[in-house]
Specification:
alpha/beta, 7-stranded mixed sheet, 3-stranded antiparallel sheet, 15 helices, 12 strands, 13% strand, globular
Amino acid sequence: MANKFIYFDHAATTYVKPEVLDEMLPYFTEKYGNPSSIYSIGRESKKAIEESREKVAKAIGADSKEIFFTGSGSEADNWAIKGIAYANKKKGNHIITSSIEHHAVLHTCQYLENDGFEVTYLPVDADGLVNPEDVRKAIKDNTILISIMFANNEIGTIEPIAEIGKIAKENGVYFHTDAVQAIGNVQINVNELNVDLLSMAGHKFYGPKGTGALYIRKGVKITTFMHGGAQERGRRASTENLAGIVGLAKAIELATANMEEHNKKLLTLRDRLINEIPEKIPYVKLNGHREKRLPGNVNYSFEFIEGESLLLMLDMKGIAASSGSACTSGSLDPSHVLLSIGLPHEKAHGSLRISLGDENTEEDIDYLLEVLPPIVSRLRDMSPLYEKVKNVK
């Protein structure tokens, strides 16, 4: 087992930054009052939540009254899609989404299909881009919602959100975007983009896990997500995760303030990997758009190997990364995203996602480029398919 440890899986989750943790700690032990209480310690908690709401709103160009705190990005996705569907079912029952959405969106849409709603799953091109004209053509008289992710969690492709938002507005259809991967990596202004609902998750931008938020534009017709108390202006019951909300707000404040510097560093590391991996390893393919992609995302498919084996061998070298293969979750099917961009099963199974973060360095890239080629070579030597290719050569 290697003594070295390098984390290359920031798209899965991030650590909590010290500044964020420092902001949170008093709300566990000192400022712990229930925000619904009228005595001073409760009022202080309520004030902290409202100040946090202001910070989140500022980060995406929204009004603080349009921000609702949730327990995760998945919850925010569920609320946005189910909330619009059920609140507007008298107007229509048709939803438009894409084939490469996160499962929080896809499974929610499938749930609604079982409840009588109609869902159109738009295809993407070989780079993972949704064509805005496909969105326009899919709109019908009974369309009530368009839900297209801001940036893909696997291949890093950034979607044409502004164009889709314009089409949605022109047709009077609500537009939701899952921005879980985009927050802290892309400048976002919900008004400029014509976004009506936007989901985020704190743990993707150095905030705590179990925190999220949903932006709901003023005037949007949406059902209450959770019934009980009057928290979140009566739209989501349950006592607020006070420390978590404070942490999420501090994290988004840091992420947006440092975005330019953060992105400049990540782009340098990302582009070095994108350029040098094919120089060192044959039979590879970059997945996702070369330019319209998240600054920290690198996704390559390696022919003649299994992604799970690649991950395990990288882990033995002290490197944490992820794969497009879903075999680690008990499924034999490869990533639905990689299949949607046209990869055959065997190539989709051999994918590697490197997602970079603040703490990664040039030395980390050096080490990955040192250990990755011999690992791939070793795995290919076990493949009868690769043996045939070598013999042909």
